[in-house]
Amino acid sequence: MVVATADLCIEGLHVSVEGKEIVRGVDLTLRRGEVHALMGPNGSGKSTLANALMGHPRYQVTAGRLMLNGEDLLQLPANERARRGLFLAFQYPQEIPGVRVGSFLRTAVNAGREKPLSATEFHRLLLQKMKMLEMDTSFAMRYLNDGFSGGEKKRNEILQMAILQPGFAILDETDSGLDVDALRIVAGGVNKLVGPDLAVLVITHYTRILNYIQPDYVHVLLAGRIVRSGGRELANELEKQGYDWIIKEAQEAGLVAQS
Q1: Are strands 35-39 and 143-144 parallel, antiparallel or unpaired?
Q2: Of 47, 65, 121, 136, whose CB count within 10 A is highest?
Q3: What's the domain range around 63?
């Protein structure tokens, strides 16, 4: 049972897409200052869970709760969840020609503030975060993700995270499509943001990103259920043996159906 006083509580979550149930009862507790890794083979429901948490309308929550400070965020649209401190870094960020990165970020940060930042205040904040992430300032003048490499798109997601300063960040397969150098740079940016006011959920298929972002907890999702949780050693075991052993274990325990 999820502890009610935890920062963010996912309780018994079931999610369907076009009438097909994908997530089948997920319980997960995220506390600020913690880094969690959610692993699993393709088709296990990882991205479905991420999108449902953020409120994507295509993903229908059929049961469960998402509790933050006594409020069920599932009753809120995506923009209100963001105002409460949720952030999702997309696996495939959208390209938006004609909208500059700086303009987009200023609109996004002011949407979550009672008193909007002035142009001068925002420019100061943007330069501060770009310097921290070792990004060239010309990046802010480019059109959002238009013509970006895979690494640049993911780096831009981390810049958004730095500007918005969420309490809970979900990184949906941020390592997807990145070469080793791009992965190291993006992971380094995440590590600079990790701290006592931020909880991070790293969703990944592979263990390589966890060589750069060290998780406090590792969870394995199979067929829409978390079948095992542990520490860093669980990720190390998956790296050595793959998922077959844990699939077999979950089948024997009746947690997932026999193939």
Answers
A1: unpaired
A2: 47
A3: 8-95+170-252
Q: Tell whether 131 is covered by a domain.
A: no
For the segment 93-128, what is each residue's pLDDT rounded down to a tens digit?
889 999 999 999 999 999 988 899 999 999 999 999
CA-to-CA distance for 253 and 238, rounded, in angstroms? 19
Which tokens is 212 given?
């750069």
Provide the terminal-to-terminal Cα distance of the chain, rounded to the nearest Å.
29
Is the pTM higher than 0.90? yes
User: Residue 154 has which token pair?
Assistant: 């993911």
Alpha-carbon distance of 145 to 162, in angstroms, equals 17
For residue 180, give Cα distances in angstroms to 9, 198, 220, 251: 34, 26, 24, 35
Q: Enter the DSSP assignment of 6.
A: S
* Domains contained in the chain, number: 1
- What are the pLDDT digits (tens) for 182-225? 899 999 999 999 999 999 999 998 899 999 999 999 999 999 99
Amino acid at 136: D
Rounded to an integer, what distance in angstroms lies between the CA atom of residue 208 and that of residue 52? 25
Long-range contacts of 134-141 (CB under 8 A, 24+ apart): 134/185, 135/159, 139/101, 140/100, 140/101, 140/102, 140/105, 141/100, 141/101, 141/102
List the CATH number of the domain containing 190. Answer: 3.40.50.300
How do strand 168-172 and strand 86-89 relate by DSSP bridges?
parallel
